[in-house]
Specification:
globular, single chain, alpha/beta, 15 strands, 28% helix
Length: 372
Amino acid sequence: MRAPEYVNDISRVKGMSERELQNLKPVMDKFEFKSNDYYLSLINWDDPHDPIRRIIIPCQEELDQWGKLDASNEKKYSVMPGVQHKYLSTAVFLASDTCGGYCRYCFRKRLFIYPEQREFLTDYQAALEYVRSHKEVNNVLITGGDALMLSTRKLEEIITSLRTIEHVKIIRIGTKLLSYNPFRVINDPGLCQMVSKYSLPDKRIYFMLHFSHPREITDVSLKACDQLLRSGAVLCNQTPLLRGVNDHPEILGELFNKISYMGIAPYYIFICRPTVGNLTYAVPVEEAFHIFQTARGMCSGLGKRAKIAMSHANGKIEVVAMTEENIIFRIHRAADPDDSGKVFICKRNPTAYWFDDYKEILETVDHQDLEY
């Protein structure tokens, strides 16, 4: 099958009018554009609110003043350029400095906008030695950018080395290429051969996919996912909840169902990070929770496995429940292990986009004090 042709110049996108291109010039002066002809072909250009267009085509609202460049303070957890160690058992390798397409809601824009903030991994030996010396690390996430933008040869070099570290049991590959360019899998038999070699019965390779809308699941992406599953990989899916893309329960419920039918585990639904340029994509926490819960009601137990959470500076904060007056959060993954499982009961705030917007915390409960 023909590999897609990448498009970095938005003026080459068929379907964009001259007026639209002129209006988007200030956005393009600040944020980059990248896609390919396969993904652009999924857009219904007759629909100005098309969700695929919303994901990949710039909009003027990206210039709205809001958010931070590093909303989750990732820099704090960088132990060396391109290696993060936020959670006790997990090390993150920012191994790729590019993606198959630039999501307009990207939370790592700082790495692509400002050269001085680029912190992608170049010293692999130092990264491997760090993991080797930290025996609490039982899983490593290879991401970026997009890990599948690396060649299979380079990926195999990293994975081969990680497999020599006894305490690393899980290797994860973070990618949206199964949405943006599934031909990356289909056209490279060596990738699945490599996965078969290193995804072992007691130590699996996980692919953390990024399907945000059911229309990203095409015959081609189905085939690519099936090939990875047959090679012995475990597939999980995560996506932010995005205004204009999947912020309707019917759409999100369909996504949960479709990926569970494919044998993919729904993993996380993320509250959109308050990153520069992201206000137009953000959904308030309580509205997002309502959408999420309603969508889960349309699914079997296998479709209900996702958690809705925020990648906060202090950890992944899960939204657990709401009453008429209160909202309940739990630290699902804690940067400080002592905070793991901690519960916060807050007074509801329908205008809140992030945990920090909840100024009135009514009660904090440590996990040791909870009864299950």
